[in-house]
Automatic annotation (TrEMBL):
<dbReference type="GO" id="GO:0020037">
    <property type="term" value="F:heme binding"/>
</dbReference>
<protein>
    <recommendedName>
        <fullName>Catalase</fullName>
        <ecNumber>1.11.1.6</ecNumber>
    </recommendedName>
</protein>
<feature type="domain" description="Catalase core">
    <location>
        <begin position="8"/>
        <end position="403"/>
    </location>
</feature>
<dbReference type="InterPro" id="IPR020835">
    <property type="entry name" value="Catalase_sf"/>
</dbReference>
<dbReference type="InterPro" id="IPR011614">
    <property type="entry name" value="Catalase_core"/>
</dbReference>
<dbReference type="Pfam" id="PF06628">
    <property type="entry name" value="Catalase-rel"/>
</dbReference>
<dbReference type="GO" id="GO:0042744">
    <property type="term" value="P:hydrogen peroxide catabolic process"/>
</dbReference>
<dbReference type="InterPro" id="IPR024708">
    <property type="entry name" value="Catalase_AS"/>
</dbReference>
<keyword id="KW-0575">Peroxidase</keyword>
<comment type="function">
    <text>Catalyzes the degradation of hydrogen peroxide (H(2)O(2)) generated by peroxisomal oxidases to water and oxygen, thereby protecting cells from the toxic effects of hydrogen peroxide.</text>
</comment>
<dbReference type="GO" id="GO:0042542">
    <property type="term" value="P:response to hydrogen peroxide"/>
</dbReference>
<dbReference type="GO" id="GO:0005739">
    <property type="term" value="C:mitochondrion"/>
</dbReference>
<feature type="active site">
    <location>
        <position position="65"/>
    </location>
</feature>
<keyword id="KW-0349">Heme</keyword>
<comment type="similarity">
    <text>Belongs to the catalase family.</text>
</comment>
<dbReference type="GO" id="GO:0046872">
    <property type="term" value="F:metal ion binding"/>
</dbReference>
<dbReference type="InterPro" id="IPR002226">
    <property type="entry name" value="Catalase_haem_BS"/>
</dbReference>
Amino acid sequence: MSKTPVYTTTNGKPISDPFSTQRVSIEKEGYQYAPPVGPLLVQDFKLIDSLANFDRERIPERVVHAKGAGAFGYFEVTDDISDICCSKFLDTIGKKTRTFTRFSTVGGEKGSSDTARDPRGFATKFYTEEGNLDLVYNNTPIFFIRDPTKFPHFIHTQKRNPQTNLKDANMFWDYLTANPESLHQVMYLFSNRGTPANLRAMNGYSGHSYKWYNSKGEWQYVQVHFKSTLGFKTLNNEEAGELDKKNPDHHTKDLFDAIAQGDYPVWDCYIQTMTQDEAKKLPFSVFDLTKVWPHKDFPLRHFGRLVLNENPQNYFAEVEQAAFSPSNTVPGMEASNDPVLQSRLFSYPDTHRHRLGANFVQIPVNCPLKSGSFAPQIRDGPMCVNGNLGATPNYAGAYNCPVQYTAQAKPSGSKPDEQYQGEVVPFHWEVTDYDFSQPGKLWDVLGKQPGEQDALAHNVAVHVINAIEPIQERVCEYFSKANPEIGEKIHNELQSLRRSGKM
Ligand code: NDP
Ligand code: HEM
């Protein structure tokens, strides 16, 4: 029997000529050309089937992080951290867990440039024996906001103007300068790390504080760092622009080609840990996403490595349909009270139901390992393709269907959680001078590497030159809060751009 597949319509009917259409033949007489054919017939299911499916090929793109590239791989435990975390996938040195990672830019559309100045998403799904764990990180250790209500406002300003449909430097900088807790992230973004050389040579950071439990039920705050074994390689502003002109999909191609050639990217995985008592003594809130945990106070501890060694077979099925959420945790790991993280726990599954449909978890790339698990609460819904749990009861605790209730996020005997008592208040996180202290330290870090401070000033100036002058002045004041030298350098750079007419 031939192994060559048979071309069919969607109901499986073999088709002899995929490109013919059913048309009414007409009298030849009077027509110069052949064949003589009249109108098309709606009964031509082969054609209608093909066109109707084509019409429905697009799903909504992600509202943020729309442009991305991904690959399968594995996570390997290299060090024992059982004193910190009791998740089973971490319980043995050498244990490997299959993963899927998607990298992305944030603000651009699905077809936008890979080399744009933007944070990069770094999302990894771990298919563990205790369910899917998603680490939905960025390549920056901090973020623009710490009040989740600001997220839609902030994102709107980084996208297109509602009238012109153009990127708009006025609204971009207007928002940021009016919300100066963003400064730390903006400095990171406008340093050369805002234009990574490729996706393989950049780091990933949890940004948020998470809570991890050991088997005694003791918990600590944890931040995770994925550090590329290639180091963090960057482009300068002009190199990024040139690369964009040559190939706007440069990062996607680089990742695919490297994996295809067996040059697998590797990240060393570390945690920083902090007890609740240590958190109380911090000069900032442990739930403040605009802050890092200083390395000298909270040193990195190695626990594993992430290797990407398998390209997707089909981009749409596996990369476009991948659905990551910080709410996908496994026993031993929990979200902290960081309000941005708490909001994300809602937002991701919500957008997945919109973007992919209520049964998005049945899509193979999103499906947890199945053996022995039973979730009868999830039934029916559009595009239910997994047998819908057959004849088993659609509720837990049925007399004829015993179910085990086993692992919990918190092991038994857990230390009491944080306790809060007080009035419900409309909290607005005020900006204080301390908020500019870590951006000031970042300026010093950049100062240790030749040209990095000047690059930051240049990268800001060539962007903000497109805004009106009062906003340009606000931008200089904004950066001066970290160190007056930055504002001065940007001011000088702006003047020289104006003089040279490069605007
Ligand atoms: P240290 O002063 O001990 O070390 C500086 C760290 O900064 C490095 O470990 C490196 O982190 C990162 N770094 C190096 N070069 C650059 C660069 N060109 N652009 C951005 N980051 C760079 O760090 P501290 O913990 O005391 O933090 C000082 C400042 O460093 C912070 O305010 C923060 O802006 C930045 N930083 C801190 C991180 C943290 O988690 N503590 C992580 C990244 C940046 P890495 O090896 O992770 O690249
Ligand atoms: C993607 C919301 C903050 C990392 C997304 C998506 C939404 C979203 C709706 C699209 C998801 C999809 O369609 O599958 C939010 C909200 C935030 C927030 C409401 C704050 C209130 C953050 C932060 C980080 C982050 C702080 C990193 C620390 C990512 C990543 C993706 C993403 C990596 C892409 C995931 C993928 O590759 O599919 N976010 N986000 N986000 N977000 Fe956030």
